[in-house]
Amino acid sequence: MKLEDIKKLANLARIDMDDEEMIEIAKSFDPILAYVGQVQEVSKIKNIDLASKEAKDYFLHNITRDDVVTNKREEYTDKIIAEMPDKQNGYLKVKQIL
Amino acid sequence: MIDLKDLTIEKAHESLKNGEYNVTDLVNEYLKVIKEKNSEINAYLEIYPDVLEQAKKAEGMFKNGTTTLMTGIPMALKDNMLFEGHIASASSKILENYRATYNAGVVEQLKKQGAVFLGRTNMDEFAMGSSTETSAYGNTKNPLDTSRVPGGSSGGSVASVAMNGALVALGSDTGGSIRQPASFTGLVGLKPTYGAVSRYGIISMGSSLDQVGTFGKTVRDAEILFNAINDYDVRDSTSIKKEDRLKPEILKKKIGVPRSFLSGDGTDPEIMKNFEESCEKLEKLGYEIVDVSLPLIKYSLAVYYIICPAEVSSNLARYDGMRYGISEEADNLYDVYTKSRGKGFGKEVRRRILLGTYILSHGYYDAYYNTAIKVREAIKEELTNIFKEVDVIITPTSPFMPFKFGEKMDDPISMYLSDLFSVPANIAGIPAISLPAGKNKDGLPFGLHMMAPFLREDILFTIGKDFEKLV
């Protein structure tokens, strides 16, 4: 993998990194991707059709809950605000976005 | 003086009930050991300031007769479990100042039962690692040989129990993070069925793989702690409802060994020799050992290193320097994100986020993620079918003995291979346990790994207790 590609990924993932580390990551990606690429061999051994499986076989189904209030008003407000790095009058303060 | 080395939950419960000692006495004994050993071992990152208050509450339960087996039992929490009002950092710098605003489901249940949480234990950052070396807060040493790692990611939790600094502990397991460290420190480590134990309030790594589990010095201790948290939780949408949980069935007394999976040359010969001895012990106990063919499970680790980084890259998007955790000063919003995340995340975490970002990117999604989820279903099917023939499948827990610090840090693939035998259980969502299986001439422990069908933890306990008698 090229350094340029790693730079694009770091940008997508919003992580500030120096070139030295990105070169190291680029180097480590090749053996990792070769290793995980083994999964493609399986499709040669076995034809897997997910659509044919019944959802109940795998406990895969949507879980819904009633849309009701489960806690008291402002029960957690103070604790959550206390965690905010920057706040003003009970609001989270962020940099201008427009 | 209380003998902490051979103490079990049931023994402690009897003594607390008889008034031989009270909860505060017991807790103080553990605090003494921690004070003596933790500066070297670094099992705990913090001893909770309210430990003695918790002990007093548990004493109240003994006075008014509302105890359970867990009442007054001093235990450790992994640093990725939320305990209201206390720091939970996942051993990352990005959460160094994060104070939990609510209790995790498991914490709430154990609190109700009067368990005493001594402190939070060191781990690989966000549970990404197999040696606890990726923690932002220093290495944890293996109490059995301090030149070696305790395994990971739940390295602090196992070290706390192995150094007699806690009676039992909770860990979490995404690919082997309970079982491999249990094996490295001579403990019992249980990863329950996916959905058996609540994940509510556990800092997520790979949400389709993560599961909370238990550590003890005996199978019975790991079982008691599991029973205390084995419950449906409406706040975890993957939690299994009571009516869907299975009842125990009679054992076939047959144990499967996937010979072709074990025949690779990566496993330490000393470990294979010990494994053969374990098989003989199980035969002596009346179990029939049969060879089983599982051609697909060898792909589990490859599947894991696709699905897990993919889930990591989306789960860790929430740490952005906005609502909690560390936040770096910058001129604009984009730079606050990149600088906070750049400074807050360690190397291995950054690598995995980037790997997940790549795997999920438009051009590679089909080749990696889409293929991996298909292979995952095929592995599940393969394992489900084999359990029609055998009660459990056994392997060694890890292909390597506890290794030295730094030995695998520069070679990610070699580190990842630590989980070769433990990861299929996470891929399939089935329960698995690591049992102590003796020691080598240098006193380093071996682990025997056992996987059971969906929701059949009971089989692991039954066979585990049998095996324990012969080790």
Key attributes of the depicted protein:
heterodimer, A: 98 residues, mainly alpha, two-stranded antiparallel ribbon, 4 helices, 42% helix, flat, B: 471 residues, alpha/beta, Amidase signature (AS) enzymes, eleven-stranded mixed β-sheet, 11 strands
Describe the structure in brief:
The complex is a heterodimer of chains A (98) and B (471). Chain A is mostly helical.
What does this protein look like?
- The complex is a heterodimer of chains A (98) and B (471).
- Chain A is mostly helical and 98 residues long.
- Helices cover 42% and strands 4% of the residues of chain A.
- A two-stranded antiparallel sheet of chain A has the order 1-2.
- In chain A, β1 and β2 form a beta hairpin.
- Chain B is α/β, with parallel strands linked by helices and 471 residues long.
- In chain B, β10 and β11 form a beta hairpin.
- The interface between A and B is large, with 47 and 64 residues.
CATH class of the domain at 9-244 in chain B: Alpha Beta
**Order of neighbouring strands in the sheet with most strands of chain B:** 1-3-2-4-6-5-10-11-9-7-8
Q: Residue ranges of chain A: pLDDT <50 for 5 or more in a row?
A: none
**Cα gyration radius of chain A (Å):** 24 Å
- Tell me what the CATH architecture of the domain at 9-244 in chain B is: Alpha-Beta Complex
Residues in β-strands, percent of chain A: under 5%
Biggest interchain interface, per-side counts? A-B, 47 and 64 residues
Largest sheet of chain A: 2 strands, antiparallel
What's the CATH superfamily of the domain at 9-244 in chain B, by name?
Amidase signature (AS) domain
